[in-house]
Design brief:
Blueprint: H1 6-12, E1 20-25, E2 31-37, H2 40-45, H3 55-61, E3 66-71, H4 75-89, E4 96-97, E5 105-108, E6 117-120, E7 129-131, H5 137-150, H6 172-176, H7 189-203, H8 207-223, H9 227-245, E8 257-265, E9 268-277, E10 280-290, H10 297-308, H11 333-349, E11 366-368
Antiparallel strand pairs: 1-2, 1-3, 4-10, 5-6, 5-7, 8-9, 8-11, 9-10
Helix pairs in contact: 4-11, 8-9, 10-11
Length: about 375
């Protein structure tokens, strides 16, 4: 067993029996590992206990020279702080996303009088709705391009206030049928917000609700002899149904879910997520991971949830958020604790996450969330 470094030994006696995060550092004061604990006193001291440890922990102990720790009010607060520090410092011994770039989100600025839609890699607490993250930026752009004729929401950067129109001319998107041109008041506010709501519902997986609403609108327009407008609505319905028919896999239960599959071979690990909205597989996302040598699948899943769940923001997104945790077999206490902490974080913040259930561990190394 490795000897306890002098700096660490002096701090071990001061560790409280409280939740928090601990940070292992090397001789150069570089962060080696960030972890959370229900009890800092017991968790940190366990590194020098006589119990058997995995290869990564034994290797980590060779380089530890110093310890920092932060006490938190609760274990769920420790969960948030741990995730934030891992993303900031990218410690050598924590499991990390191989590609550390920020993945794109779809942003709808519902806080604006006339919301706009666009792709962003910055997620901030500004009152907007965010959907994502998406790993395939090219496919996302193509999808939004197709949506321009179905949900003609503006994507320009114009500041459009309430009241009289500020602009005299609209851009070419109005002529192409890709925008309702609220900048020149070519559409009233109520109608524009109805289209925005349909777009939000579609991203939230309420495809059938959107189609039913459009069918009712088409029938009303036909009854009032507004056949040209009815035909435009009919074309939008056909476009949405065409997008639906592209799906190869379909579930008759029509529920929303994220199915996570993990493949591990030596030091190569990839997490694949199938996004299911209203029973249809709408996207597949791959997340290569590094620093997974010697880690169990439970530990990898635990780290993956921390890295891919945008827990720092109180906005609506789709991500991997287990809200109901049935008994697991063959699962480590650490995974159950982390998932329970994530559940508690969501509950405390009253975030609007989709209802989800984490199913049992399958032989194919996949999880259904």
């Amino acid at each position: 067993m490795e000897e306890i470094p002098p700096k660490v030994e002096g701090k071990l006696r001061l560790l409280p029996d409280q939740p928090g995060i601990y940070i292992w550092k090397d001789a150069e004061d570089a962060v080696l590992y960030v972890g959370k604990a229900k009890s800092l006193k017991h968790r940190v001291r366990s590194y020098w206990s006589s119990t058997a440890k995995d290869i990564k922990t034994n290797h980590l102990l060779r380089y530890i020279q110093d310890l920092d720790y932060i006490i938190t009010p609760s274990e769920s607060d420790a969960f948030i702080l741990e995730s934030t520090l891992i993303k900031r410092h990218k410690p050598k011994y924590n499991i990390l996303l191989k590609d550390d770039k920020r993945y794109p989100f779809v942003k709808i600025t519902v806080q604006d009088p006339y919301p706009r839609i666009f792709i962003t890699r910055e997620v901030i607490k500004d009152g907007a709705k965010y959907f994502g993250p998406y790993t395939d930026a090219k496919s996302l752009r193509i999808t939004l391009r197709n949506f321009e004729w179905i949900f003609p929401i503006r994507n320009c950067s114009r500041k459009i206030p309430f009241g009289p129109p500020k602009f005299k001319k609209s851009c070419i998107n109005q002529q192409l049928g890709k925008c309702l041109a609220p900048c020149v008041r070519a559409v009233d506010h109520q109608e524009y917000m109805r289209v925005v709501k349909r777009q939000i519902d579609f991203f939230s997986g309420k495809h059938e609700e959107v189609l039913d609403e459009l069918r009712v609108e088409m029938n009303k327009l036909s009854e009032s002899l507004q056949f040209e407008k009815a035909a435009a609505v009919r074309n939008r319905i056909s476009a949405i149904e065409k997008i639906h028919r592209r799906q190869i896999v379909y579930s008759t239960e029509k529920h929303n879910a994220d199915v996570i599959g993990i493949y591990q071979e030596e030091n190569v690990t990839v997490c694949v997520v199938l996004r299911i909205l209203s029973g249809a597989v709408v996207n597949q996302e791959s997340y290569p991971l590094i620093n997974t040598q010697g880690q169990s699948l439970d530990e990898i899943l635990e780290a993956f949830l921390k890295l891919t769940t945008p827990i720092e923001m109180s906005c609506q997104t789709r991500s991997f958020c287990p809200l109901s945790l049935p008994p697991w077999r063959n699962s480590t206490p650490g995974l159950i604790t982390s998932l329970a902490s994530l559940k508690e974080v969501i509950r405390q913040n009253s975030w609007r996450w989709p209802n989800a259930t984490l199913s049992t561990w399958s032989k194919r190394k996949s999880w259904h969330i």
